[in-house]
Design goal:
InterPro entries: AAA+_ATPase, ABC_transporter-like_ATP-bd, ABC_transporter-like_CS, ABC_transpr_LolD-like, MacB-like_ATP-bd, P-loop_NTPase. This is ABC transporter ATP-binding protein. With about 220 residues, this protein is α/β, with parallel strands linked by helices. About 30% of the residues lie in helices and about 25% in strands. The strands form two sheets. The protein has a six-stranded mixed beta sheet with strand order 6-7-8-3-9-10, with helices on both faces. It has a four-stranded antiparallel beta sheet with strand order 2-1-4-5, with helices on one face. It is globular and about 50 Å long. The two termini are about 20 Å apart. The structure holds adenosine-5'-triphosphate. Adenosine-5'-triphosphate (ATP) binds next to helix 1.
């Protein structure tokens, strides 16, 4: 489904002698649930931003179902087929959870009635009662689950999550991983990056990144 074809990334003002991504190759199929581990600065976030079409690789390409992902906020593949949960929770604090859930749809230019889907995704993450709450009323673990719910609004083919369990206690980290397992069983491929070894048993395959190079463990 997703093919990362020998991508390299050289940042213009890098502090390193090596590239942030060095000829990275990766194939993700529909049933996959994969993790990318590796030390801080090894290139995980750069890889995820490139797959999501938010960064342009210096070399190589990213292809989703035969179509090359072109970087830019308006890329239709990026906004409709791939959901990206960035580090942190990134919710808008002045808006209700409901409005936060609709936000990516507005960005994608969709203007339908998504109330039913909002209730559905909140039920999936076990937070069906918070639709009209503001983010400040929720705990860190709950906000992380809302960010996941928001990423599911458009039933993505691929869900990317950069460090989805960072700063969560074990109970909440496992809840998030169980949620990814359910999403994966329902047909969405999942790719996460993590520093957290205890969540790796939830994943079907594990990659390791070191100085921009990616290897399957
Ligand atoms: N905009 C940028 N300009 C220059 N160098 C950058 C930029 N963004 C990242 N880098 C460098 O690229 C390398 C990879 O960074 P990246 O954020 O992808 O690593 P990471 O594995 O996600 O780290 P962490 O686990 O700490 O989030 C790092 O050495 C970083 O300093």
């Amino acid at each position: 489904m997703l093919e990362v074809r020998k991508i390299s990334k050289y940042y213009k003002y890098s502090v390193n002698a090596y590239p942030a991504l060095n000829q990275v190759e990766l194939t993700i199929n529909e049933q996959d649930f994969a993790a990318v581990t590796g030390p801080s600065g090894s290139g995980k976030s750069t890889l995820f931003h490139t797959i999501a079409g938010l960064l342009k690789p210096s070399e190589g390409s990213v292809v989703l179902n035969g179509i090359e992902i072109v970087s830019g906020a308006k890329s239709p593949i990026r906004t409709k087929e791939i959901s990206f949960i960035m580090q942190g929770q990134n919710l808008l604090s002045n808006f209700t959870i409901e409005d936060n859930l609709y936000f990516p749809l507005y960005l994608a230019g969709l203007r339908g009635n998504y109330y039913q889907r909002a209730v559905e995704v909140l039920t999936m993450v076990g937070l069906e009662n918070v639709l009209f709450s503001y983010p400040s009323r929720l705990s860190g673990g709950e906000l992380r689950r809302i960010a996941i719910a928001r990423a599911l609004m458009l039933k993505p083919k691929l869900l990317l999550a950069d460090e989805p369990t960072s700063n969560l206690d074990t109970e909440n980290a496992f809840k998030v991983m169980e949620l990814f397992q359910n999403i994966n069983e329902e047909g969405t491929a999942v790719l996460i990056s993590t520093h957290d070894e205890k969540v790796l048993p939830f994943c079907k395959s594990i990659y390791h990144m070191e100085k921009g190079k990616l290897v399957l463990m």
